[in-house]
Task: inverse folding
């Protein structure tokens, strides 16, 4: 007797429905690759503002405003994550991402016309909204495409798409700066890269409409209750501290290098970022085989050492060595942190928690320029990287509060 005709055997329609309810079996789907392209193009538009502190200085913005104006974009993004995250679903994601791209394009051209603190503040707040719409939409789609056993690899490769602009954009704009006429012109030109991003979103969004898996309902109350759980809250805190150190260095680096008499801040970031990318490409399966919390602690220790070395760098050799050390440290961190959050989250909260990780990233991006600006004011450019090292070590200290067996459930399998 054919077993498919027995009462207990599933029919063809039922088998198809079960297949649709399961997460994808392969990582390298069209949707995953498309999202990597989308986030790469979006970050090309974000990283172009590495020179924003200098631009604000050039147009006469008072010093007390500069750090806040840079960080205000992240402040707007944080508010959006805190209020809107539960409402970002797979079916809404494509439309939201396109709206975000249009917003960022409008903001990019706005620097040609607005030069007052109030005008720049409006641009930065709108920029934060656009960033939220693109990043939250991308993360929501990404989480639905990740096979559970390859979360570390997935976030490692996704982060490579985020990192590439950091290695390309500063160097390109350093080289093209004299030909652009002004930094504001460069911001406008770079915003045009979001046109092909919208095309990518449209194609990926259409494919996602065929995904009939049910989406969990999460209210704001549910999201806050889940985020208050110790293991989730501590991991969000650690991620924010890591980004504070990175963003502080990123936005203050141009002035730091000029104070040391070094040229080519773009070259420094290119070296650092290429090191991060190579590490994540070569060791991407490592993030699913080694206990993630140990990788986080190692990465924080290496990153802090890199900031200390940079502080006392006297020549190009030490600058290059510090760039490589920072690249290794930061290369390990993000995939381990995001993969760990994916692993410890209940399936219902995976998309929300991944977006909260991005929210904590924006918190670090908001606080980083302000802390860096204040550190420069108090210590001078020469010693402000020591503050970054202290922040990173604080993140490592927080990681030891976590009970490893509770927060890193795949650790036993990794050790076996």
Result:
């Amino acid at each position: 007797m054919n077993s498919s005709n027995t009462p207990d055997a599933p029919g063809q329609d039922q088998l198809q429905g079960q297949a649709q309810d399961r997460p994808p079996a392969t990582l390298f789907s069209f949707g995953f690759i498309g999202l990597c392209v989308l986030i790469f193009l979006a970050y090309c538009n974000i990283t172009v503002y590495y020179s924003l502190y200098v631009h604000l200085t050039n147009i006469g913005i008072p010093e007390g405003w500069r750090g806040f104006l840079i960080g205000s974009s992240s402040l707007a993004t944080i508010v959006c994550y805190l209020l809107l995250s539960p409402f970002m679903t797979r079916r809404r994601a494509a439309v939201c991402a396109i709206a975000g791209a249009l917003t960022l394009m409008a903001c990019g051209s706005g620097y040609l016309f607005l030069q007052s603190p109030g005008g720049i503040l409006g641009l930065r707040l709108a920029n934060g909204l656009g960033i939220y719409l693109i990043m939250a939409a991308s993360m929501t789609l990404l989480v639905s495409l990740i096979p559970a056993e390859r979360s570390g690899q997935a976030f490692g490769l996704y982060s490579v798409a985020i990192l590439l602009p950091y290695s390309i954009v500063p160097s390109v704009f350093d080289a093209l700066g004299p030909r652009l006429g002004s930094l504001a012109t460069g911001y406008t030109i770079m915003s045009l890269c979001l046109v092909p991003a919208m095309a990518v979103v449209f194609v990926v969004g259409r494919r996602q409409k065929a995904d009939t898996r049910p989406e969990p309902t999460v209210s704001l109350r549910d999201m806050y209750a889940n985020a208050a759980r110790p293991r989730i809250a501590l991991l969000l805190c650690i991620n924010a501290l890591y980004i504070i150190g990175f963003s502080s260095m990123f936005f203050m680096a141009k002035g730091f290098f000029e104070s040391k008499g070094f040229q080519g801040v773009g070259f420094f970031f290119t070296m650092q970022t290429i090191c991060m990318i190579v590490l994540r490409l070569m060791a991407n399966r490592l993030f699913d085989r080694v206990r993630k919390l140990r990788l986080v602690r190692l990465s924080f220790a290496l990153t802090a050492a890199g900031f200390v070395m940079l502080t006392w760098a006297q020549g190009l050799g030490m600058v290059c060595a510090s760039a490589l050390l920072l690249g290794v440290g930061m290369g390990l961190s993000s995939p381990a942190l995001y993969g760990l959050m994916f692993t410890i989250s209940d399936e219902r909260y995976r998309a929300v928690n991944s977006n909260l990780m991005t929210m904590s990233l924006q918190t670090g991006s908001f606080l980083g320029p302000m802390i860096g600006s204040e550190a420069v004011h108090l210590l001078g450019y020469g010693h402000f990287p020591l503050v970054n090292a202290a922040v990173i070590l604080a993140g490592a200290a927080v990681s030891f509060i976590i009970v490893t067996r509770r927060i890193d459930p795949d650790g036993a399998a990794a050790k076996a």
